[in-house]
Amino acid sequence: MRPVSVWQWSLWGLLLCLLCSSCLGSPSPSTAPEKRAGSQGLRFRLAGFPRKPFEGRVEIQRAGEWGTICDDDFTLQAAHVLCRELGFTEATGWTHSAKYGPGTGRIWLDNLSCSGTERSVTECASRGWGNSDCTHDEDAGVICKDERLPGFSDSNVIEVEHHLQVEEVRLRPAVGRGRRPLPVTEGLVEVRVPDGWSQVCDKGWSAHNSHVVCGMLGFPSEKRVNVAFYRLLAQRQQHSFGLHGVACVGTEAHLSLCSLEFYRANDTTRCPGGAPAVVSCVPSPLYAASSGQKKQQSKPQGEARVRLKGGAHPGEGRVEVLKAGTWGTVCDRKWDLQAASVVCRELGFGSAREALSGARMGQGMGAIHLSEVRCSGQEPSLWKCPHRNITAEDCSHSQDAGVRCNLPYTGVETKETWYWDSGNITEVVMSGVHCTGTELSLDQCAHHGTHVACKRTGSHFTAGVICSETASDLLLHSALVQETAYIEDRPLHMLYCAAEENCLASSARSANWPYGHRRLLRFSSQIHNLGRADFRPKAGRHSWVWHECHGHYHSMDIFTHYDILTPNGTKVAEGHKASFCLEDTECQEDVSKRYECANFGEQGITVGCWDLYRHDIDCQWIDITDVKPGNYILQVVINPNFEVAESDFTNNAMKCNCKYDGHRIWVHNCHIGDAFSEEANRRFERYPGQTSNQII
């Protein structure tokens, strides 16, 4: 279908355009958006699937030819301008790497640079019309706010073809009317179209089609079904076919991206000689247990080489990969749905719902292992995809890639977990609950079972939660600990304030004050917030404690533990810092400080900032006066009692090897607890201190 003409210009309209800086065209009866000066007869539309009416691939018609925009240098400011061209008030986001599918024809604009205030995209800087070195795999898209500009009765959005779209897919069990366990893994394929749910003709149905359907439904793979049984069953049932001719390659993230045909309303004969398409999906072990299937091995052979960090829900997060025994991130250059889907399926989920760029799931620390990952979608692992190894200058953690995966429907959201005033509660049904954080519901967490240890009820004995879509994520700069660690023999007459705050070992109480000294292991502690929400103390300002020695309020009694451990984990010394003040010492270039300790200021750590406790301030040490020579582990744990919510607690501990000979100490191999592979961690704990590193 050819696009409908939007503007019918009259001679008077052209004369008015010459006399004033802007004019109103004479809209045809079918469309009425205003055309602003500067657009020079350009037309705009949103295209691609799957999408909502206010998002999609941006396409521009110029000189009668439709084309796209390259995502190089594309920004939210450019998206604002384009959304206004399309009749929306503003943009809420933008996409890269042809998220809505690659376009065709010309690539009209490349290196588009807008301030966001332009009235037309023609006022933005670019390489010039039709001058581009991009491919359609780099087509840009926009996500506009679903709100029209005043004066627009319709948006300037024209579809390539006004055809039907597959909005949703489900599996309907063909046998058994009783209550079936969730998730449903096998059944008739049904698609939801504007008129309701319809079935799909199985003529030409392939394993590739099943692979795409299973991915959409949150399953990593598919398996063969007993076609003869389902065809026999189909003869006894009535069916409503709405779709046929489905032909997928197998790498599509959504059925809408496959070649397919809808039956017309006047088609009286549908799916002759065929039957409804049937699919059987293979769930990951976590979901297999919940669906009542035979429980598989809970962990695959060998250690995983890909993981997700920083997500608020299962199946989402920052992508991290294991290389040479160390975890690192992936640069978002060329990151797309195919690469994201490989990650999701590798981790036991379905295909990718979103490929996230710009550290949307928080910034990582340490190495960036991969860049320009180009997957076909058929690879069993991200490491099998072509990629480029990068140097530190090539990419920054502000470009860390992330994913949101399709998950099976388990019905967990229909079980309500209530949080209310427990003054009238008469029964406690669970106690001893201990979760790892990956469980789908409280039922899957370890607990006391039918034996409830908490026999008393009331507000003091019942648990509650406050939910949030985002959380902080604290991470200690481990390299700085190693670089700044040293021993100081500090005279007792300089430690009165530290003794008052209980920052010394218990043997200090029997020392001959003010004579003598204490041996202190000093080091700097730089704590970054890499999450998506500020880290705020649990206690309110009214309960903060004033410390005269340090001249400010402390908002947390326990924020960090400093420990010296033997190889078998026995604690031989610990830091006795009584309480802490939280503030933004420094921030990234584009982040402003919000918190400071002085003058009873608000306390916390802003996203993108860090709190620095220098090695030379009071109590920033471990008193090792009573420690005997030997090999040890230095351990620092942030937020040890989990008092403040974080998106990831597995990176809160840092460990270092240290060797102490009674006079000097060697500190080396400092790393975050989950930064190493399992094998590297085993080697670390097996041989603490066994190295000839620099003497400190």
Automatic annotation (TrEMBL):
Residues 1-25 form the signal peptide. Gene3D superfamilies: SRCR-like domain. Its cofactor is Cu cation. Residues 290-311 are annotated as: Disordered. Keywords: Copper, Disulfide bond, LTQ, Metal-binding, Nucleus, Oxidoreductase, Secreted, Signal, TPQ. InterPro entries: LOX-like_protein, Lysyl_oxidase, Lysyl_oxidase_CS, SRCR, SRCR-like_dom_sf. Disulfide bonds join C70-C134, C83-C144, C114-C124, C248-C258, C331-C395, C344-C405, C375-C385, C435-C445. The keyword Disulfide bond applies. One of its GO terms (molecular function) is protein-lysine 6-oxidase activity. Residues 290-299 have a biased composition (Low complexity). It catalyses: L-lysyl-[protein] + O2 + H2O = (S)-2-amino-6-oxohexanoyl-[protein] + H2O2 + NH4(+). Its EC number is 1.4.3.13. Pfam families: Lysyl_oxidase (PF01186), SRCR (PF00530). It is an enzyme of class 1 (oxidoreductase). It is found in: Nucleus; Secreted, Extracellular space. GO terms for cellular component: extracellular space; membrane; nucleus. Residues 44-145, 169-282, 306-406, 430-468 form the SRCR domain. The lysine tyrosylquinone cross-link (LTQ) is generated by condensation of the epsilon-amino group of a lysine with a topaquinone produced by oxidation of tyrosine. GO terms for biological process: collagen fibril organization; inflammatory response. Mediates the post-translational oxidative deamination of lysine residues on target proteins leading to the formation of deaminated lysine (allysine). Belongs to the lysyl oxidase family. This is Lysyl oxidase homolog. It comes from Balaenoptera musculus (Blue whale). The lineage of its organism: Eukaryota, Metazoa, Chordata, Craniata, Vertebrata.
